[in-house]
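Good morning C.,

I know you're traveling, so I'll keep this short. The sequence:
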Amino acid sequence: MIYTQPTSSERMNMRYTIARLEPLKLLLSAVRLKMEQIALQTEDKSLRGNILNFVIETGPCEEQVKSYMDSLMQLFPVNDLSPVAKNENDTVQISCPFECARFYEKKILKVFRNIINDYKVIQEVRELMRTQLNEILYAFLKIKMISSFSTKELRAETNLF
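The tokens, ready to paste straight into the viewer:
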């Protein structure tokens, strides 16, 4: 197969897109790790199961972002892009899954919207991010809905969603 070399503007868009996806990847990883830690500390089995379902449901989104970044990096290798990454879990000391979800939802939503509304980001990535945003918001919505159930209701149904 014959591949055409990307033009300089396409390379700049690739580089810019990778730079915009990096914070999203870090946030998704942080929220999944934090929610998993909270789930392991939760004694209520049904609540733990629902929190772990959140972790499972957000996994494909994180993998999609990583794979898209990897495919862009194969086309345009970038070694100097990653800023010093601070660990999001270092600053957040939340033990309630509902507070954690609220905290991270705002941050993730902001990053997603920045990517979606940025015309310099590759169009395919922006379209992919719209789909991923809906999936992430749905997962956060389910966690919010669980907070409105009583402990009795949570125990009656092992998996609410």
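Safe travels,
E.
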